[in-house]
Amino acid sequence: MWVLRVFIGGIFIVSGLSKILGPYQNFLYVIQAYQLLPSGLEVLTAQIFPWMEFMVGSFVVLGLWTRWSLAGAGVLFGILVGVVGQALLRGLPLESCGCFGAWIHVKPQTVIVMDSFSLLLTLVLLRRLPQAEKFSADSYFDKL
Amino acid sequence: MKKWQLALGVIVVLIGLALGTKIYLAPKGVKINPQEARAEGNPNARVKIVEFVDFQCPACAWGLEYLKIFLARHPQDLYIQVRYFPLTSLHHHALISALYSECAARQGKFWALDNLMIPQQAQWAQLINPQPVFDAMARQVGMDMNRLSACLTSNSAHKVINDEKSMGQSLGITSTPTYFINNKMVVGTKSLQEELKKYFPGG
Q1: ipTM above 0.90, yes or no
Q2: What's the rounded Cα separation, in Å, for the pair A6 and A4?
């Protein structure tokens, strides 16, 4: 279970870092393609969302406040499934989901399956929290 | 150590590491060469735009047309320079269209060819081999076909395109169209319109 926790956190670390390390304008362009937010919110989201992914991912990997960080990961997966899903339903012409910046290109049809599966895994981890907390900062502090 | 202290420490370290790397990797900005053949407008204009384009990208075509209209309205206030950024993994004709453009630029016909190539993008993008169409366009704008043929197979035209793409990548470009408006990076046509509104509120 703890390997799964590290895997889920790792997804968000890679996803967040891939956007943080490049110019935010590249992710802004991705957000604009989803045609969901007003302009001001698009810019704010482009600057904040990658940091949220990076922080949540790091906390999940370290197992720090595991319940809450996993819940955060679940919410992020839920948002991603919703955003990509509405784009697919509206038939928006997206060549790539833009989830991993320029590092990895995944088609929206593929990423919605991946994100839904990851959301399911996150829920399983939340249900089996004691096993998920193995080798975590939480378990270290619990022993003190 | 308490848990909240560790959490705070983790947050500070992560932000520091990510920001440090971001600053270390940050691009230095794009240089404008006033002698460039692929430029239009007033070289001393208050708004200078360098655009990295893929000639098969629909948004690039829209952006090029939009900027041409804008330039016609503000000929003294705008300077536009085109650089190549063919997305060969997405568009099969990205490289060959860039090559024809570069060869046209070498004969002083870049904009003349561009005026034919861009509006017809949707048609030639569907073809398996668009070269006959590009050749016809080249003849139409009065290009020397022998020079064109030599240019298309030359290493130097390929080198210019590859060098510009590498330069774009070092500037953090991942998609097209990407613009540098007075050195500020702007990606996509929506951001282009919004940024230009700041300089030209009347449109």
Answers
A1: no
A2: 5
